[in-house]
């Protein structure tokens, strides 16, 4: 189950990674139609805590530009991913268990 929660400063996506999750489950949020002009930063916050945390991937179309794997501590962390691609891309954030 994925929940999108509106805060006063944006949205966040939540997926439960303990039971009833099984290996191979995944979740994805995607935004298409973005134009990149080179030297761009993708900024987001993430919280990956617990024994059954999988892998978080950031894709521009099918190009994996960043990956975070496993437990990262019981705190929100900021990711700033610099990308040099130019042109129209879809950005997706995927969690694989």
Layout of SSEs?
Blueprint: E1 2-7, E2 10-15, E3 26-37, E4 40-46, E5 55-60, E6 63-69, E7 77-83, E8 86-96
Antiparallel strand pairs: 1-2, 3-8, 4-7, 5-6, 5-8
Structure described in brief:
The chain is mostly beta strands and 97 residues long. Helix content is 0%, strand content 64%.
Shape: globular
Strand order of the largest sheet: 3-8-5-6
Portion of residues in helices? under 10%
Order of helices and strands: EEEEEEEE
Report how far apart the termini are. 13 Å
Rg value: 14 Å
How many distinct helices? 0
- Main sheet properties: 4 strands, antiparallel
Number of beta strands: 8
Q: Which whole number gives the mean pLDDT?
A: 83
Strand content: over 45%
Which structural category do the helix and sheet elements fall into?
mainly beta
Uncertain segments are 1-6
Folded structure, characterized:
The chain has 97 residues and is mainly β. It is built from no helices and eight strands. A hairpin with a 2-residue loop joins strand 5 (55-60) and strand 6. The chain is globular. The model is unreliable at 1-6 (pLDDT under 50).
Features:
mainly beta, two-stranded antiparallel sheet, 64% strand, 97 residues, 4-stranded antiparallel beta sheet
């Amino acid at each position: 189950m994925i929940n999108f929660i509106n805060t006063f400063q944006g949205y966040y996506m939540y997926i439960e990674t303990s039971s009833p999750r099984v290996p191979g489950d995944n979740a994805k949020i995607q935004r298409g139609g973005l134009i990149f002009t080179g030297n761009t930063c993708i900024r987001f916050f993430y919280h990956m805590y617990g024994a059954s945390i999988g892998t978080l991937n950031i894709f521009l179309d099918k190009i994996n530009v960043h990956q975070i794997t496993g437990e990262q501590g019981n705190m929100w962390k900021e990711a700033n991913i610099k990308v040099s691609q130019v042109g129209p891309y879809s950005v997706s954030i995927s969690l694989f268990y």
